[in-house]
Each structure stands twice: as structure tokens, then as C-alpha cells.
């Protein structure tokens, strides 16, 4: 089959890799400027320096055998490494969190900067409404966050759209800060007031060790309460919370904040959804659980359903 995959996150790319291996002709589209999805890395040029911040997923674990095997293969390729500062069994992408996403996207020739607005059925095939898409497809996989599924699938597979609409995801405000000197704190902090998690990004393997880059993530409750505030104000406030948690801070060289409106979804046991009549499927963390590993497992589950 010619299969279109909408969404080049862990779920979509895993499904795409499996289907390619099984002999299908797969094309992956993503609206983002570059590879990452919620495993994104922000690259910033400022004051003659290049700073990088993993501002989405902070690390991942591998509990299931299938994901452990995949992580070992990535480790052999030098694109992931353990990061015990987070916890025993924690892994990160190297030199940046998005490295495994980038590797899969490159191998598949994923097309970035392509937002899909709608699907259109023409006879037995599917056309995608988005910039510069001339091809038609036999099947479509939607691998986007739950809240972004309905606009694509409400007309053709309302049962999948409804399942996605029933999911609620927590937001996460994230501050990214480069300091001029070392912060006197351990490499990771958890649950300090409004802060759910803070990490010295530059302590991860393969990062610029001479920089002092921090990622500070507010907890879900605080993020929800501040959802519609300006990023600059939220960044300033998270910095103040951080100072309360660790004491005096060195001068700030660079700071910005990002709002993840749909960061972490609920747990779900569906795995993946596949409508064999329409030849439309859905995968993503929202069908499994709020973790990188869940997104991977959902991508595998959908490829298996499609293969029958
Ligand atoms: C702040 C934060 C912290 C987290 N911390 C952790 C952690 O520590 N450990 C952990 O395991 N997990 C963590 N997670 C969760 C983890 O990142 C996700 O579960 C996982 O990456 C989801 O993968 P996915 O493929 O389902 O979705 P995504 O990575 O969101 O991929 C979906 C892709 O679809 C694209 N897209 C959406 N709509 C369209 C459209 N219309 N057209 C084209 N493309 C579209 C998006 O650009 C995106 O690239 C965190 C997430 C966030 C945001």
C-alpha cells in the first residue's frame, strides 16, 4: 500500500519504519519546522553562543522488551545514552533529545513544514489537503496528539475522532535559561513548589559542558492555572520559583518560555485504532500512556493491526 503518515513524532515514525520494512510505500508529513514532536530540542543563537535545550520530554525509560531492543540499537548508533542523574534506567537522545527522531525521519525522508488540514476520499484513494502534496494514498495513519485528531478524522472515522476527544492532556509551561556561571544545585530537582521538574540540560551526555543551561518545567496544576499568560511573564515567574528552591542564582544570559498546551495525556489501553474499511488508523501516546515508550509501542501496535 501507499501509506501517508501524519505526524513525525515517536509514534508516527515507529509505525512508518515498521510499514516500510514490511514493504509498504510510506510518506511521512509533519507541520513542525524540524524533527522532534514532543521530544523536541530548541536551538538558540544568542550573544555569539549556540544554546540547546531539550524542552519537551526530559528522558525516557524502556520497560518492554521491544523498546529495550530499539534503545540498544540507538545506543550502538551513538544517538542515545544513559543519564543516571534523572534516575536508574533513564535514557536521553545524544547530542540532543530529538536525535532518535531525527535519525528515523532522515531514513524515511519525512517532509517537515507540511501541515495537513483535511483528508479527502477520491474513489478508493485518499488525498491530503496540505502544501505541495500531489500524491494519493491507499491508507492514512494519523499520529498527532489527541486534541489534534478530530479536525482530521471527524468526517471519515467519527469513532476514532470521538475516542480522541475523550482524552484530556495536561499542559506544561517550560522555561529555558542559560546562566553565566554554575547554579549551586544537583543536576535534577522534582516537585519544588510550582516546579514539577528542573534539570541542568548541560549535564546530559554529549552536551556543551561549559554552558549552564537549565530546563524548568512547571507542574500540571500551575501550568493549567497560568495557561493563557504571556510567555515572558511565565518565564520570569518560574525563574523566581527556581531561585526560591535553590538560593542565589548567577546572572541570566538567555531566557525564554514555551507553553506545551497538550504535554502529557492520560493512560489508555487501546494501543492503536484501525478502521480496515476506510483504511485509516491512529497511533500516539494518547492510545497507550504519557511516555515516549508508550508512543513507540502504539506505533508498533498500529503497524501490526494494518498488517493483519
Ligand atoms: C513538557 C513535556 C515533558 C515530557 N516529559 C516526558 C518524560 O520525561 N518522559 C517521557 O517518557 N515522556 C515525556 N513526555 C511525553 C512524550 O514526549 C510523549 O508521550 C511522546 O513524545 C509522544 O509522541 P507522539 O508521537 O505520540 O506525539 P508527538 O511527539 O506530539 O508527535 C506528533 C507530531 O504530529 C505533528 N502534527 C500535529 N498535527 C499535525 C498536522 N495537522 N499535520 C502535520 N503534522 C502534525 C506534530 O508537529 C508532532 O511532531 C513529555 C512531554 C512534554 C510535552
List its traits.
5-stranded antiparallel β-sheet, 308 residues, 8 helices, 16 strands, FAD/NAD(P)-binding domain, 27% helix, binds flavin-adenine dinucleotide, Polyamine Oxidase, Chain A, domain 2, 5-stranded mixed β-sheet, 2 domains, alpha+beta
How is this structure best summarized?
The protein is an alpha+beta fold. It has helices spanning 10-21, 65-76, 99-108, 150-153, 158-165, 220-225, 231-246, 292-307, and strands at residues 2-6, 25-29, 41-46, 49-54, 80-82, 91-93, 118-122, 125-129, 139-142, 170-179, 188-192, 195-200, 212-218, 252-264, 273-275, 280-282. Helix 1 (10-21) runs parallel beside helix 3 (99-108) and helix 1 runs parallel beside helix 8.
What does this entry look like structurally?
This protein folds into 2 domains: 2-40 and 98-167 and 266-307, FAD/NAD(P)-binding domain (3-Layer(bba) Sandwich); 170-264, Polyamine Oxidase, Chain A, domain 2. It is globular. The two termini are 13 Å apart. The protein has a 5-stranded mixed sheet with strand order 2-1-9-16-15, covered by helices on one side. It has a 5-stranded antiparallel sheet with strand order 11-12-13-10-14. It has 8 helices and 16 strands. Helix 1 packs parallel to helix 3 (99-108). 27% of the residues lie in helices and 29% in strands. The mean pLDDT is 97. Bound molecules: flavin-adenine dinucleotide (FAD). Flavin-adenine dinucleotide (FAD) binds next to helix 1, strand 10, strand 14 and helix 8.
Helix content: 25-40%
Major sheet attributes: 5 strands, mixed
- In CATH, the architecture of the largest domain is 3-Layer(bba) Sandwich
Distance between the termini: 13 Å
Q: Residue-averaged pLDDT, rounded?
A: 97
Taken together, the total number of domains comes to 2
Q: Over the alpha carbons, how many angstroms does the gyration radius reach?
A: 20 Å
| Number of DSSP E strands | 16
